Amino acid sequence: MRDPINATPEPYKIKMIEPIHLIPADERKARLREAGWNTFLLRSRDVYIDLLTDSGTNAMSDRQWAALMVGDEAYAGSASFENLEAAIREVYGFPHVVPTHQGRGAEHLLSQSWIKPGQHVAGNMYFTTTRAHIELAGGIFEDVIVDEAHDPSAELPFKGNVDLKKLEAFIKRVGAANVAYVAVGCPVNMAGGQPVSLENLRATAELCRRHGVRVVMDGARAVENAAMIRAREKAWKGKPTAEILKEMCRQVDAISVSAKKDAYVNIGGFLATRDAELYEKAQNLCVLFEGLHTYGGLAGRDLEALAVGIREMVQDEWIEHRLAQVAYLGARLEAEGVPVVKPYGGHAVFVDAKAFLPHLDADELPAQSLAAWIYEACGVRAMERGVVSAGRDSKGSNRHPELELVRLTLPRRVYTQTHLDFVAREIGALKRRASNLPGLRFVREPKHLRFFQARFEPLPVKSAA
Ligand code: F0G
């Protein structure tokens, strides 16, 4: 196996650059205060290395930029939609395609089409927007992921797997007729980008079919999942990523996709299915919420760039480099003594904030605090994935997930090895003075998806025992 600390050279060279600056320490302090200690509220111009998300922050290829020029901007029947539909049929294998402005648009169409109020949806750990749309449609979410997914240090190759016993018990408990569908995230963002094996996906689908329950894949990063299957699952070792992705898609009735991830574009999404009834319903709702069913809230040029990106994303050279870059950052951080979730996922390295700031209690928001202090220390922007993201339950109490993480997310084809070295070095230095870092408390808490817009203030400094 390749030593992850030996970086794999980028399979591209740089044709256009965008300047970035590290503003001075006193300015970072002031900007963080203005942003209410929430990294989502920082201005991008005040950020040096932006690891907030890999969503819509990718660098397009020269071919994608060229494709923008031939976008067909017709309101109806755009030729660019035909190109996108052909690419999705070819790469994912679904006949019916409804374009949406981004992933949550597809989640909205899916939830509204398939959930009757009071019905249940099971999934392998929640995702923020996915659960919000399930609940908006009157659904109740049930987590059926394997227990190990909640343990940052458990080193299993497929920590995103569905626990089949939990799933079967759940279906029997609520009754198959009360299950709207089962949603399998491949991979599981909130668990650290952990993949699902093909064996588990197949078994999940078989179990659902036996009970007459429909199965959907959240395929925001399905290509990364496929590449991790290629690397880790015996039966699929070394098989082309494209073939594995197709096989994954064969297991499910539909896929909801945020194209802002795998497909290297800055905006876009879609719902694709082989279920003619879902297609009909979703196409009709699309007109209400997104735009006509041949553009779904996107410009013709966006559809065109996405069609090209979908064909690029399954090329092994690209996706292998992506995984190698994440592993490189993970290994560098570990060498600096930073506690991270193992094994590394496909889109990010997740720092274990509980282990980084052991002197803070859960309600002192360790991950939110750590993301703020990382920005203050070195201008690197990360994202909280812990108690703040988890929100409140239907009774209004804070949910307390086991995982309290800070995500260092790598945009695709954007940063170089030297940037990653800087990130690891600075976060390592912060770790060595972590016992002086205070927690945060809410001063403003929005109702929906609170992590995006909440404001905080620091608590008094308390020392580690
Ligand atoms: N599903 C998963 C697994 C995601 O990670 C996201 C977005 C969505 C659905 C929704 O897609 O943003 O296009 O509407 N994740 C982003 C992130 C926001 O930073 O992880 P969207």
CATH topology of the largest domain: Aspartate Aminotransferase, domain 2
Structural class, from secondary structure content?
alpha/beta
Low-confidence stretches: none
Tally of DSSP β-strands? 14
Indicate the mean pLDDT.
96
Order of helices and strands: HEHHEHEHEHEHEHHEEHHHEHHEEHEHEE
Beta-strand percent range: 5-15%
Q: What does the overall shape look like?
A: globular
Q: Catalogue the ligands.
A: ligand F0G
> Mind describing the biggest β-sheet?
7 strands, mixed
Task: Please state the oligomeric state of the protein chains shown.
Answer: single chain
Whole-number count of domains: 2
Give, in spatial order, the strands making up the sheet with the most strands. Answer: 2-8-7-6-5-3-4
First-to-last CA distance: 41 Å
Please state the CA-atom Rg, rounded to the nearest Å: 21 Å
CATH H-tier superfamily of the largest domain: Type I PLP-dependent aspartate aminotransferase-like (Major domain)
Helix content: 25-40%
Architecture of the largest domain in CATH?
A: 3-Layer(aba) Sandwich
Please specify the SSE layout and strand pairing.
Elements: H1 25-34, E1 49-50, H2 62-68, H3 79-91, E2 96-100, H4 103-114, E3 120-123, H5 128-136, E4 140-143, H6 164-174, E5 179-185, H7 198-210, E6 215-218, H8 222-232, H9 241-250, E7 254-258, E8 269-273, H10 276-289, H11 300-313, H12 316-335, E9 348-352, H13 353-356, H14 366-378, E10 380-381, E11 383-385, H15 387-390, E12 405-409, H16 417-432, E13 440-444, E14 455-458
Parallel strand pairs: 1-10, 3-4, 3-5, 5-6, 6-7
Antiparallel strand pairs: 2-8, 7-8, 9-12, 11-12, 13-14
Bound molecules: ligand F0G.
